[in-house]
Every structure is written in C-alpha cells, then in structure tokens.
Design goal:
- By secondary structure, the chain is an all-alpha fold.
- Helices cover 74% and strands 0% of the residues.
- The chain is built from nine helices and no strands.
- Helix 1 runs antiparallel to helix 2, helix 3 packs parallel to helix 9 and helix 7 runs antiparallel to helix 9.
- The protein is globular, with a radius of gyration of 17 Å.
C-alpha cells in the first residue's frame, strides 16, 4: 500500500507543479519562455520525486513507465494495476488542487484547460498526435530503462538524468501536443477541464492514453532486446 500512496503523491505533485506552471505562464510560441518554464517544471518535479519516493515505489508516476517495467519483468500485474489506479487518482487530486488555487485566487488559466493536452499544434490531426506521443514516450522511457538498468553505473545521478530527459521531450512536444508521455497526467486535467465546460481535451484524450502506452511498450521491447544482445 505504501508504494501506491507514493505513486499517488508523486503524480499529484507532477500535475500540480507541471500543469500548474503551464496554466500560470502559458506556452507562448512567440517568446518560447512558457515552453522552457513548463518543461523545467515537469522535469524538476521528476527529479524531486525521484529522490523522495524513488526508494519506495521506484517513482514511476506514469502508466507508460509502469507498463514498460511490467513488460521487462520488474513489476507484477497486481502492482501494475495498483500503480495505474494510484497514478490516475493522483493526477485527479493534482487537478483538484489547481482548481482550488486558480479558482479561489482568481488566477487566469493561460492554457484554457488545466494544462491539458491537445492537438492544436498538429492542426487537429490525431495520427500526427499519436506519432508525436509514441516517439517522445519511446525516448523518455528508453532513458529511464537505461539509467535504472542493473548494468547502469550512474550512481546517484539517475533521478537527474530522468528529469532532464523529460525536459528534453517537453521542449519539442509542448508546441505540438502539449507533451503528455503520461496517460495519468493527461487524464486528470482533461476531466477537470470538462467539468468546467471545456470538453475538447476529453474528446482527444484517447490519443494521450494510446500514444504513451504504445511508446512505452515499444521502448520496453527494444531495450530488452538490446540489453540481452551480448554482441
């Protein structure tokens, strides 16, 4: 149960800080400032959580990561289900915190949807959005699998590497899909946005569930094949 609580807390913090930053500063393509701040917010949150709950649950805080670990034999089916439930609930909790902060404080949501993901950057193309999410999740999860491998020798820098990898994929992905690479991170804000009357993120949500899960699964299969190849 402690592992599930840790995953709940980690995902809640990720959505609160990452999506909250996006809501506050927006993602202004003209200046790029919002892109960088939002990318850093997500990445630095992963760093903070990796060094705080990583020794408890592994700090997946992402169903795509949990799926990859499951495929590679590092997680049981029972724990996978428990992790995903905790992650989704954590994302919903984070969205509720943002609703309270922005609602009570009268702060304008610069994203118009709780930092939810969307397809505006790819002109509404679900296929393009899927491709973006598959590729970016593949890169992110490959980095995670590599740095957490028993063969890796990164000492105490693993959490930093993973966090910077998330910053990396956000720099490209924010302008295209808002960068999900994490179904739970997308589910919470999409539901919160729908409750407040913006149903577009919820209608497009399937892209940000399917894309990251496919990308994570591909990364697991590819990494397992590469790591087992002695040549």
């Amino acid at each position: 149960m402690k592992k599930y609580i840790a995953e709940f807390i980690g995902t809640c913090v990720l959505v609160t800080v990452g999506c909250g930053t996006a809501m506050l500063v927006g993602c202004d393509a003209a200046s790029g400032c919002g892109y960088i701040l939002t990318a850093l917010a997500f990445g630095l949150t992963i760093v903070a959580m990796a060094y705080s709950i990583g020794n408890i649950s592994g700090c997946h805080i992402n169903p795509a990561v949990s799926l990859a670990v499951l495929i590679n034999g590092g997680l049981s089916v029972k724990d996978f289900v428990g992790y995903v439930i905790a992650q989704v609930l954590g994302a919903l909790g984070g969205s509720c915190i943002l609703a309270a902060i922005f609602g009570l404080g009268g702060v304008t949501d610069m994203t118009g949807g709780f930092g939810s993901n969307g397809l505006a950057g790819v002109n509404g193309s679900a296929i393009a959005g899927l491709l973006v999410e598959i590729v970016l999740t593949f890169i992110f999860v490959m980095a995670i699998l590599g740095v957490t491998s028993a063969k890796a020798n990164h000492g105490s820098f693993g959490g930093l590497v993973i966090g910077l990898s998330l910053v990396l994929v956000h720099i490209l992905g924010i302008g295209l899909t808002g960068t999900s690479v994490n179904p739970a991170r997308s589910i919470g804000p999409a539901i919160a946005a729908a409750i407040t009357g913006n149903t577009t993120p919820l209608a497009q949500l399937w892209v940000f569930i399917v894309g990251p899960l496919v990308g994570g699964a591909l990364a697991a299969v590819v990494y397992k094949a590469l790591e087992s190849d002695k040549n």
